[in-house]
Amino acid sequence: MDERLFLNRWQNTNPTAAKKRFEETEGGGRMQTMAMMPFIAVGLFTALRKLFGNEAEAFSSDRPLRDVAEAVPEPQSDPLSFETDIARIAQIASSLNQLSADISAGIGARISFLGQTGDAVAFEAGLRAAGGGSLRPLKPGKTGRANDNHVEGTPSPRKVKPEERPAKRRDDDDGKEKTPNRAPTLAGPVSLKDSLVNQAIVIAAADLLVGASDADGDVLTIQDLSVSSGTITQTAPGKWLYTPAYDYVGEVIFTYKISDGKTSVQQVAYSDLDYEDPDIIGTNGNDILIGTPDPDRMFGLDGDDLIYGRAQNDTLFGGNGNDRLYGEDGDDTLFGGFGDDMLFGGRGNDRLFGEEGNDKLFGGEGDDRLSGDAGHDHLDGGEGKDHLDGGIGDDVLDGGTEDDILLGGLGNDLARGGDGADLIRVGAGDDVAEGGAGDDVIGGEAGDDYLSGGDGADEISGGDGADQLSGDAGDDFLAGDAGNDTLDGVEGHDELTGGAGDDALSGGNGNDDLSGDAGDDVLDGGEGRDTIDGGEGVDVILAGAGDDVAEGGAGDDVIEGQAGDDELSGGDGADEISGGDGADQLSGDAGDDVLSGDAGDDVIDGGIGNDEIDGGEGHDTIDGGEGADVILAGAGDDVAEGGAGDDVIEGQAGDDELSGGDGADEISGGDGADQLSGDAGDDVLSGDAGDDVIDGGIGNDEIDGGEGHDTIDGGEGVDVILAGAGDDVAEGGAGDDVIEGQAGDDELSGGDGADEIYGGDGADQLSGDAGDDVLAGDAGDDVIDGGIGDDQIDGGEGHDTIDGGDGADQLSGDAGDDVLAGDAGDDVIDGGTGDDTLSGGTGADELIGGEGDDSLDGGEGADVILAGFGDDVADGGSGDDVIEGNEGDDVLSGGTGNDCVDGGAGDDLIRGGAGGDLLLGAEGDDVIEGGDGNDTVNGGEGADTLSGDEGDDVLIGGAGDDLMAGGKGEDVLHAGLGDDVLDGGEGGDILHGDEGNDVVDGGAGDDVIDGGEGADVLVGSAGDDIVSGGEGGDVITGGDGADMLYGDEGDDIFIAISEDGDDLIIGGSGVDTYDLSQIVADVLVDLPGGFVQSLDTGYDEVFDIENVRGGRGNDWLVADDSVNVFTGGYGNDTFVFRKLRDLTNEGGPRDEITDFTVGDRIDFSRLSGPEGQLFVDIAGATFTEAGSVGFRHERFGDRDYTIVSGTTDSDPDAEFELALLGHHQLTREDFILAARDIDAQA
């Protein structure tokens, strides 16, 4: 039978193994066989080269399967037999362990060498290596092909004996002998392997043809191959890939047909499928280890490993790194090792040990034991009766289902018992324990613990520390023990004992017994009929729902009956008792007690002392008893009597009858239609809600009607009346009274005297009558009449209508869209917030718009108008008015008179009107019109538009990019900061650009223009103007007229236009340019002579001009002794240099011509040297005689220049140079030169 060699690796990389072969002679025939050469003694990689060809072939993943015929033959000197092969292979048996270990270390993979049948050989069959490998031999006389899964064999050719050959017979047709076909013969079923490892393997045709032969020598093939378990896939001719079913163990039957091409026979092959069960050891990297169906021991070693135990009782060791261990089926034991591990027990009674690190342990199904050990661990028992021990660290323990034991250990732990009767002990630390369902026993030990029983009858003890205990559902027993504990029975009939310390006890639902014991305790019975004893100390008792009995005992206690018909007694001390819902009986006994009946028809006796009594809801009967009592009758139709003393009585809800009796009493009716009687004395009476009737009686009373439509009579004396909410009617009567209408549409009258009346909310009617009154409408749309006298009126909120009447009144609209009229007198009117309308009337009034978009009319007189915030409209009317717009986009008009108008912030529109006005834009982009008269206009900040209109105006732009127009008259314009545009308009104006890059146009008239700082554009326009550029590089145009233009500092440009008059141009400091590019006529520019002349421009005088731009005609440009830059422009231009110093520039840079073209000429005809030598010819780049001109080409930066040079003597060195921009090939036609016999001056 054929044998196969398996190389099992973690990743299947398809390496190629080249095999050595040798020849063996038998009976004159040639047979081929294959064997592994001895290799162990020469070391690991030498052995790999001999076994597989070389290391790269053995373990590379990109080499295809290779036939044995491609391997390099290695002939042997002596014939060998299979027995000799076995002997040689046996020599390596003792070294297989080391080989397997070396290979494992070298490639990081598991290595095994497996035989197919396990036939007996000369060495120990199935020898195990340290890496998990075994070696079994190939059958003799086999050749084949190798890859990383197997070496397939092919039977050697066998000689057929004559007697085995079939008989021949002659064919009648052609006379030749024919041999009849014989079917293949079988030796019986094929046993593929004693025990296949459960993994994908390659099956070769030779494996399935074992024992098959064909008498005719026909080639045998396999057909219709199928398997009883798993899958079989043909990957190449004569080769199949078998993949076992997952977790299948047992016999596998291969069914197929063997065919000789004519006839086929049925055959079967058998194999048992099982698992290896050695230790499974990973590497120091990140491994994935998968166990077998048998019990495994698996070691992850270093790295973040993923380990699956699969079936049986496995032991998994994560080792170092953050590992994930899955026990799966069986009673497994998992050790996380170092690192933050995740352990999953799976099915079975597992044991999980997190060991070092912050681990997560999941027991899964079964009765598991989980131990977190060191670190902040999370333990989840899952199903079954589990035992969880958090160990050291802040752990989370989840018991899961059934009866679990949870031990928190050291640290601040969270333990959740889950279902079942659990035992939880959280240990030292600030722990949280939740029993969950079942009758649990929970103990807290030291630390401030939170312990919750969950469902079931639980027993919980807090131990030392300030603990929180919650019984949840069930009849629980809770003991706080030492410390200031919090106990909550939640549901059920619970028994709670606070123990020592200041405890908080809550019974929850059920009939509970609560005992505070020693300390200042808080006890809450909750629902049910509870019995509560506060015990010693200053206790707080909440009886809760139900008919409860509560006693405070000694001390100043606080008792609340809450729901139910309760019996509450404070005992000695100054107690606070509240009955809550129900018909309660409250007894304060001795002491200054505080008693509250709350809901129900209660009977309350304050007893002796100065008590505070609150009847609460219900029809209560209250007796304050002796002392100065405070009685709150509460809801319901109550009857309350203060008795002797200065009492305080509040009827609260209901139609109450309240009497203070003698003394200075304070009585308030509360809700309902109450009857209040102050009787004698200076009383304080308040009707509160309801339509009350209040009689102050004799004395100086304070009355508050409260809500409802009340009727109030202050009676005799100086009274203070608060009408309250509702549509009230109040009369102060005689005396200087104070009346407040408060809410509602009230009718309030002060009567005689200096009264103070306040309308409050609602649309009120206020009448001051005679006297100097103070009236305030407050909220609502009020109507207020001050009447006779100097009144102070404030409309308050709402859209009010106010008439000051006669006298010097002060009116304030406050909030709302108000209408205010001062009428006669010098009034002060303030609109307040809202869109108001203010009218001053006659007199010198002061109008303040306030917030909102207001309309203000000063009327007659010299008024002061402050428009305020908002987009306001203000008109001063007649008189010399002062108007301020403040914030907002305002429209302001001074009217007639010499007004002062300040727009303030915002984009304002300001009109001065008739008269000499002062108009200020201030902040914002303002539009200001001076109107008639000599106005002063200042735009202030922002991009303003200013116009003087008629008159001699002064306009100041201020900050911002302003647009200014002087209009008619002789105006003065100051641009100020920013890039401004100025237009002088008609008249002889003075315009100052000031700072910024300004555009200034003098307009018609003889103007004076000063550009100031910045690069300005200045235009004189019509008239004989004086224009000064100031600092910066300015552009100046004189316009029509005989202008005087001064460049001042900076590199200025003077622009000539057609028919611009005979101008005087002085460039000033800097390099200045006279630009004639718009001129069509021929221009003569004589810089040394100081004039420019043409038919278009007339005769201009020019000084301190360095550069010239010619026009569109044939221009003559004459250089002076400064550095000149000439641009000829269009036309055939002539550049004239009269003197040598005009070119030498006293040692300065060269003169330059920027646009020399064909037709232009350079005139040296009047140029002579020191000895009077004239230029007569052009000589090239060097000079051989006096009076020669030459040129050369140079490059400066990215520009080409043609340098013209010349000499007046025989010295070859040039005496001057002229630069022409561009590369020019000059000829004599480009120059005007004097002949030798011509007088230089002719």
Automatic annotation (TrEMBL):
Q: Does the keyword Membrane apply?
A: yes
User: Which residues does the annotated region (Disordered) include?
Assistant: 132-189, 355-395, 436-863, 922-961
InterPro entries found in the cross-reference section = Cadherin_5, Hemolysin-typ_Ca-bd_CS, Hemolysn_Ca-bd, RTX_toxin/Mannuronan_C5-epim, RTX_toxin_determinant-A, Serralysin-like_metalloprot_C
Q: Which UniProt keywords apply?
A: Membrane, Repeat, Secreted, Toxin, Virulence
- Per the database record, which ranges form the Cadherin-like domain? 181-266
UniProt-annotated location(s): Membrane; Secreted
Question: GO: which molecular function terms?
Answer: calcium ion binding; toxin activity
Residue spans of biased composition, Acidic residues class: 514-524, 557-575, 647-665, 737-755
An annotated GO cellular component: membrane
**Which Pfam families does UniProt cross-reference here?**
Cadherin_5, HemolysinCabind
Q: What protein name does the entry list? A: Cadherin-like domain-containing protein
Organism name:
Georhizobium profundi
**Lineage of the organism:** Bacteria, Pseudomonadati, Pseudomonadota, Alphaproteobacteria, Hyphomicrobiales
